Structure formats: structure tokens, C-alpha cells
Amino acid sequence: MAAPTHTGVEHFKPIPLRVGSSLPSRVAFALRRFVDLQLGTIWTFLGPRLADLHGDLLDVGCGEMPYRSFLPEAVRYTGIDVPQAGAFDMQGNAEILAFDGLYIPFPDATFDAILCTEVLEHSPEPMALIAEMHRVLKPGGEADCHGAFFRPCSLCPL
Questions:
Q1: CATH number at residue 53
Q2: Given CB 3.0 to 4.6 Å as the disulfide criterion, which of 108, 132, 150, 152 pairs with 104?
Q3: CA distance 97 to 83
Q4: Pfam families attached here (predicted)?
Q5: pTM score > 0.85 for this model?
Q6: Residue 11 counted as domain residue
Q7: What are the pLDDT tens digits along the chain (158 aa)?
């Protein structure tokens, strides 16, 4: 029997985080946060953290931007995701900038803060993506990175 080969295609499809404004949508999302311990933990942890941010924030692998609602209005938000995010049932949004999943298309030291939730485990080169986040983070900036089945890594020295 031949050994399996890596095709570079991810077969796991994460469930999009959609936070609707209708009452049934809000109730369904609250139930999901209760049942999905990973989501509930991240949601509980990020709320207070993001509420205190200022400056320019980069959301790497932003999906449907579910955590954007935690941010103060003064924060300048930039979300990036891979073009194939639609394969994960993500709804398109003109505000989301496309990137190739590795090279972040911004100059060095552009952002005061970076948010990266449940993305690194999908990257074929997570260390290279972390290096890119470090490159675009301003000196003294903060990064919140969270991966599936890993404890939150807040204020990580990238």
C-alpha cells in the first residue's frame, strides 16, 4: 500500500463565526459559545482585551470578522484572509483584503496590534506566518494569537 501524500488541500472546514443582529441569531450564537468550549474561552478572553486596544489592528485570517464588535470605534481595523476562505462557507466582504496565507502585504512596523484566532493550525508554514506578523507589528506592539486546542497566547513576544 502506498503511503499517503500531502496534497496541500485542507479537508477540515471550520464552522464560520456569524454573529447576526436578530434575536434568534444572537440566541443561537450564545448557545454555540456555551457548547463550543474553545469558542467560549476565546470569546470570554478577547472581549476585555480588545475593548482596551487603540491604534491600528490587523486581524489575520479574519473570516467573518466576529471579534470586530469588541473594538472601540477609534481602532483602525484591517482584516485579511485567504481568497479560498469561501470554501469554508465564509461570506464575502469587500472590507477583507486578500493575502496568500503567508506574505502579509503591508510595510514593516505598520500595526499596533495583531489578532490571529484559530489560523496558525491551518497554515502550511505557521512559523513563517508568525515571522510575517512580527515584521508588520510595530515595536512594542501586542499580538493575540489563539489556536485550536491551544491555550491563548497573549502578548506573545513575536
A1: 3.40.50.150
A2: 132
A3: 9
A4: Methyltransf_11 (PF08241)
A5: no
A6: no
A7: 444 344 455 555 555 566 667 888 777 767 776 777 667 777 778 888 889 999 999 999 988 888 888 899 999 999 999 887 665 555 667 788 999 999 999 999 999 999 998 888 888 899 999 999 999 999 999 998 887 655 444 444 44
